[in-house]
Amino acid sequence: MKSKASNNEPKENNVTQGKFLIVSLILGLAVLLVVILRSEKPPDTSVSDLTKAPARVADNNKPVSNGGDVEGPEIESHLGKDDYMIGAFPPDNRPLISAEYEDDGSGIDANTVRFLMDDEDITDRCKITEEKVTFKPAKTLKSPKHYEFKVIVFDKSGNPSELVWMILLKPC
Questions:
Q1: pLDDT tens figures, 92-147
Q2: How many domains does the chain have?
Q3: Are strands 97-102 and 145-154 parallel, antiparallel or unpaired?
């Protein structure tokens, strides 16, 4: 009997090791798949055209010269030089979100300003001037939640700039 048991042990160990190897391989592939899926963000077609310079033409239908202006506008959010904030906005978590911009070259083309919240273009809900864009949510924002804000603006020579910042909104 002992000889049969000892003959079966190596076979059982080999089978157990084989099963362990297969399970480990499957788990490894599953982890790799999760990492790949998290790192690849699907293209957002609603935003893709926002970073293309608008066609600029003069009255004679010829392209406008940039006059040597090759620098995009400078943009600063309401957070100043910071790009991340954690906070609550009492009483209703409807913060006034804003960004200021300027361009010493050809000047700001206010018609090109785009404002995005979590990759959704919300420009039509913003107040836009030659110097600033502001957004005040109509409803209380969900919290706790991360919100990403992005401003895209072009100068009159067609040079783009963008600024991205995040807010971790805490409950009031």
A1: 999 999 999 999 999 999 999 999 999 999 999 999 999 999 999 999 999 999 99
A2: 2
A3: unpaired
Is the model's pLDDT at 158 over the cut of 90?
Answer: yes
* pLDDT for 159 beyond 50: yes
Residue 67 counted as domain residue? no
Burial (CB < 10 A; 0-12, 13-18, 19+), residue 109, is: buried
Rounded Cα distance, 100 and 131, in Å: 6
Is residue 106 assigned to a domain? yes
What is the rounded distance in angstroms from the CA atom of residue 102 to the CA atom of residue 157? 13
CATH number of the structural domain spanning residue 140? 2.60.40.10
User: Does residue 91 share a domain with residue 11?
Assistant: no
Instruction: Say which DSSP state 172 is in.
Output: -
Domain that holds residue 122: 46-51+72-169
Q: Give the C-alpha separation, 161 to 152, whole Å.
A: 6
Please give the pLDDT value at position 169. 94
